[in-house]
Amino acid sequence: MTFTLGKALYSAGKIGVFDSGVGGLTVLREISRQLPQEAILYFGDTARLPYGNRSQAEILRYVREIIGWMMQLEVKMVIMACNTSSALALEAVQSEFPIPILGIILPGARAAVRCGRRIGVISTVATAASNAYRQAVLEADQKAQVWQVGCPEFVPLIESDRVFDPYTRQVAQRYLAPLLRSQIDTLVYGCTHYPHLAPVLKQLLPAAVTLIDPAQHLVTAAAQELDVLGLNNTGLVQPTEFYVSGSPLQFAQLSQQWLGYEPVVQQVSLAQLEAASPVPLRSVEG
Fold first, then answer.
1. Are residue 154 and residue 274 in the same domain, yes or no?
2. 26 among the known binding-site residues?
3. DSSP letters along the chain, please?
4. Domain limits at 249?
5. Which of 103, 205, 278, 280 has the most CB atoms at less than 10 Å from its CB?
6. Is residue 151 annotated as part of the catalytic site, yes or no?
7. Stated pTM of the model
8. pLDDT single digits (tens) 54-104
9. Binding of substrate: at which residues (predicted)?
10. Are residues 98 and 220 in the same domain?
11. Is residue 193 marked as binding?
């Protein structure tokens, strides 16, 4: 399967947003705030979460499948609301698909260096191991220092609705300890799930530490891209469509507390995703 420009880029199309689960809802909320006129197609790959312990080859395969499937639904832009995917697959898929694809790491890193130079990053193990945030921060400010901590237990705890469980606080204390010893002045949510932990993290961090939610800055970058490309929606606003690869009911119930309503969620099978995986354009053309 290959894709060409044609129908893919048109202003009335939806913005595709995807994550491994409910984490991307933090990006969805920010789109609704900054770009209320835009229609959104949200996909949570809940059958294959967490992404943080997957290999780069697996992540790249998943991302290609998801974007290929979204292209069939004629999205005009894709926002990777997943730091692990952004770290391991963004550059590859940007060169393979004929629509704008935005990742979350660079906007978050640029925002961090505007706030401090002793920067901590909490993320999935895969994102931490990729050093993507350290590289992005140092590109923006060579004098900055970066400490990264992989937090493998956070996503499963959030996805199982255990944010306020005492055990979650214990886990957070353990993950934050080395960053506090390093006297960070800025902490980046290096996973879109982690803003859901804000009530817990704020209790454990000194008031002087600035929290950076890259979602805000990613959506600002998306707004600029839409404007430059002339892809702003000028028609009627369409309701958000929600899809998952796992249980629609579980996702709907879990996401209600962050959306303020229980969404109607449809399931996309892994077989459907695998069938949508494209042949990369680079391979076809050259």
1. no
2. no
3. ----SGGGS-TTSPEEEEESSGGGHHHHHHHHHH-TT--EEEEE-TTS---TTS-HHHHHHHHHHHHHHHHHTT-SEEEE--HHHHHHHHHHHHTTSSS-EE-SHHHHHHHHHTT-SEEEEEE-HHHHHHTHHHHHHHHH-TT-EEEEEE-TTHHHHHHTT-TT-HHHHHHHHHHHHHHHHTT-SEEEEESTTGGGGHHHHHHHS-TTSEEE-HHHHHHHHHHHHHHHHT----SPPPPPEEEESS-HHHHHHHHHHHHSS---EEE--HHHHHHHPPPPHHHHH-
4. 6-104+216-285
5. 103
6. no
7. 0.90
8. 999 999 999 999 999 999 999 999 999 999 999 999 999 999 999 999 999
9. 19-20, 51-52, 83-84, 192-193
10. yes
11. yes
